[in-house]
From TrEMBL:
It comes from the Bacteria. The lineage of its organism: Bacteria, Bacillati, Bacillota, Clostridia, Lachnospirales. GO terms for molecular function: endonuclease activity; hydrolase activity; metal ion binding; RNA binding; RNA nuclease activity. Residues 123-413 form the RNA-binding protein AU-1/Ribonuclease E/G domain. This is Ribonuclease E/G. InterPro entries: NA-bd_OB-fold, RNA-bd_AU-1/RNase_E/G, RNase_E/G. The keyword Magnesium applies. GO terms for cellular component: cytoplasm. One of its GO terms (biological process) is rRNA processing.
Length: 426
């Protein structure tokens, strides 16, 4: 299959998506000016403890350089000598006190009245490995099942292990040549040592590491065995991608990226490891080539039509996402109708799993399928829906069917849903 990651920018808003054979799988949208704090690492100053709610309030500086507060979740065993909290100031007995400086990473942005959330399990993430500063253990992703491959990756990571951090091999590392693995681990180790050198002399509230925008880092989250190419028509984003994925842009590449109308520079790119990064400079706009306007507009529509003539009605609410499966006009013959309803529900299950990922809908999801009388068909439908959800990068589970015939699902929360991203980008 031809899998591409497309990034384009217009009027200060970056639209980007993961496409499989020309069809969108995931779509995102965000302002080019980075406002999110997620992934940033700080030398945070403890403002005050809040033991009653198992946390503390910290002070950091946001993207504008202004002081702001965040909520810190106290980890288990935080009062013990081998606490996972990394202190950057001399301790004053057990636990934490106001004025202490600790190393934290932001895991959630502020939402309405809620403060940003920080955690002590600081990590540096690559495509194949994660360095975990709050957990010194070395491990391999549970999704890698082959014993030989697990042992290979574990032994490889052990060669780079140092005191102060752990190394976890990600699913994408499976089957990757040691030369590529070595290149990334060396880069992560350099990033780690630079971070710790800065942290040793940092004042409270200092930003030590800024996470690149998600439109840059998303390529490392996508399945390594599926993604063929990253394509952008923005010269600045192209250079940023090349730097992040391990290649400085040469002067000739920079000049070719600046020339949009030269037929000889229609496509220029850098091969970074197994990932092709391409600058698109054709006269025909990249956003029109991939019909981005159409796909973003469709992803905001309440109704999704199915090939059989049925439809889905998708309603995100404050508490949950509600999806109704409508049959449209089908045969009135009962024997025929039972099979038609079953097939339409299977068709709807495929589209539901796709739409949840495309729109980045999460939390509690309730689906009202077309009613089926046979228990066997209902059980088969649940199993089929669960199988479709396994294609999702985000944890998505089918829980059960209620007495009223409603299917309960959950999908882990990460970024905002697409309709909120688009609203924020305007």
């Amino acid at each position: 299959m031809n899998h591409k990651y497309i990034i384009t920018e217009r009027c200060g808003v970056v639209r980007y998506g993961y496409f499989a054979d020309g069809q969108p799988v995931e779509l995102y949208c965000e302002p080019k000016e980075q406002k999110s704090l997620v992934g940033n690492i700080y030398a945070a100053r403890v403002e005050r403890m809040a033991d009653g709610i198992g946390g503390a309030f910290l002070e950091i500086r946001d993207h504008r350089g202004q002081n702001c507060k965040c909520y810190f979740r106290l980890p288990k065993g935080w009062k013990e000598p081998d606490s996972p909290i990394i202190r950057l100031s001399p301790g004053r007995g057990d636990g934490l006190r106001g004025g202490d400086i600790i190393l934290v990473q932001i895991t959630k942005d502020a939402v309405k009245t809620k403060l940003p959330v920080a955690e002590s399990n600081v990590s540096l993430t690559g495509k194949y490995f994660v360095l975990t500063l709050g957990d010194p253990r070395t491990g391999v992703s549970k999704k890698i099942k082959k014993k030989e491959e697990r042992e290979r990756l574990s032994a490889f990571a052990a060669r780079y292990k140092e005191e102060g951090f752990g190394i976890v091999a990600r699913t994408n590392a499976e089957g990757i040549r040691e030369e590529e693995l070595e290149q990334e681990l060396s880069s992560l180790l350099e990033r780690y040592h630079t971070l710790m050198r800065r942290a040793a002399y940092a004042e409270g509230r200092t930003l030590l590491y800024r996470e690149p925008p998600q439109y840059v880092t998303l390529a490392q989250e996508l399945p390594g065995d599926e993604l063929n190419e990253v394509v952008t028509d923005n010269p600045e984003i192209y250079e940023e991608l090349c730097r992040y994925y391990g290649k400085e842009v040469s002067d000739s590449s920079r000049q070719s990226a600046a020339v949009h109308n030269n037929a000889d520079t229609r496509k220029r790119g850098q091969q970074t490891g197994g990932l092709q990064i391409t600058f698109y400079s054709d006269d025909y706009p990249l956003e029109k080539l991939y019909r981005l306007d159409h796909y973003y507009e469709s992803a905001l529509q309440k109704t999704v039509w199915l090939p059989s003539g049925g439809s889905l009605v998708i309603e995100p609410t404050e508490a949950m996402v509600v999806i109704d499966v409508n049959s449209g006009s089908v045969t009135k013959k009962k024997k025929q109708a039972e099979m038609v309803y079953y097939e339409m529900n299977r068709e709807a299950a495929v589209e539901i799993a796709r739409q949840l990922r495309l729109r980045n809908l999460s939390g509690i999801i309730v689906v009202d399928f077309i009613n089926m009388e046979k228990k066997e068909q209902r059980q088969e439908l649940l199993a089929f829906l669960a199988d479709q959800c396994k294609k999702d990068r985000i944890n998505c589970q089918v829980i059960d069917m209620t007495a009223l015939g409603l299917v309960e699902m959950i999908r882990s929360k990460g970024r905002k849903p697409l309709h909120e991203q688009i609203k924020d980008g305007k």
